[in-house]
């Protein structure tokens, strides 16, 4: 009878602390991988493999959206770095894609998030345009999301949106040189 009580107590303690353990693991992964990137396609890209250039144009923040003043610049810079690091596309290459976007959602973790783990997110409505024709080739919401305090903040969220951009370009046929961690 005593062995059964000790085993029951041990199982209860493990189950009771499972949330803390999962939070600890999530924080460790967030420190290593950073914010994640997710693509929500609106108009899927079709064969982009023939393009040799991509220039990041304007990134704006939706009016009345409560977001840090530097968010648009951080997202623009993260997009440019992601393309430079992971593709053979250059700003001067031709034929060239133009990328523009608008930050339509920004969410910073709140007080409740401190207990269960933060959820911070940025969503950028993004368009790829053929420069010579002026036509929109693809449109998607690129999401940078953090579920750990170690990968939160506007810089990490912007990097997550950059990871989403690489996934989106890859789905359209752009050759990706190096896969980044955290592309879930």
Report a brief summary of the structure.
It is built from five helices and five strands, in the order ααββαβαββα.
Report what the structure shows.
With 184 residues, this protein is of the alpha+beta class. It is 39% helix and 28% strand. A 5-stranded mixed beta sheet has the order 1-5-4-3-2. Helix 3 (71-86) crosses helix 5. The longest helix has 18 residues, at 154-171.
Q: Which outline best applies?
A: globular
Please identify the structural class as seen in this structure.
alpha+beta
In the predicted model, the low-confidence regions spanning at least 5 consecutive residues are 20-33
Our measurement of the CA-to-CA distance between the termini, rounded to an integer number of angstroms, reads 47 Å
Output the number of helix runs.
5
Strand order of the largest sheet: 1-5-4-3-2
> What is the strand content?
25-35%
User: How would you state the average pLDDT, rounded?
Assistant: 82
Largest sheet: 5 strands, mixed
Which terms would index this structure?
184 residues; alpha+beta; five-stranded mixed β-sheet; 5 helices; 5 strands; 39% helix; 28% strand; globular
Task: Give the topology, please.
Elements: H1 2-16, H2 18-33, E1 36-43, E2 53-61, H3 71-86, E3 96-107, H4 111-116, E4 120-130, E5 136-146, H5 154-171
Parallel strand pairs: 2-3
Antiparallel strand pairs: 1-5, 3-4, 4-5
């Amino acid at each position: 009878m005593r062995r059964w009580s000790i085993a029951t107590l041990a199982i209860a303690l493990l189950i009771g602390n499972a949330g803390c353990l999962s939070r600890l693991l999530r924080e460790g992964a967030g420190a290593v991988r950073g914010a994640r990137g997710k693509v929500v396609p609106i108009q899927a890209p079709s064969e982009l493999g023939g393009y040799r250039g991509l220039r990041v144009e304007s990134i704006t923040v939706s009016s009345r959206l409560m977001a840090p003043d530097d968010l648009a610049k951080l997202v623009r810079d993260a997009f440019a770095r992601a393309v430079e690091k992971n593709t053979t596309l250059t700003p001067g290459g031709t034929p060239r894609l133009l990328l523009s976007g608008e930050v339509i959602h920004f969410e910073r973790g709140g007080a409740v998030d401190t207990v269960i783990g933060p959820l911070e997110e940025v969503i950028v409505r993004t368009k790829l345009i053929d420069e010579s024709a002026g036509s929109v080739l693809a449109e998607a919401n690129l999401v940078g999301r953090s579920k750990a305090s170690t990968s939160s903040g506007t810089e990490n969220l912007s990097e997550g949106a950059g990871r989403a951009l690489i996934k989106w370009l890859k789905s359209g046929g752009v050759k990706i040189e190096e896969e980044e961690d955290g592309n879930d």
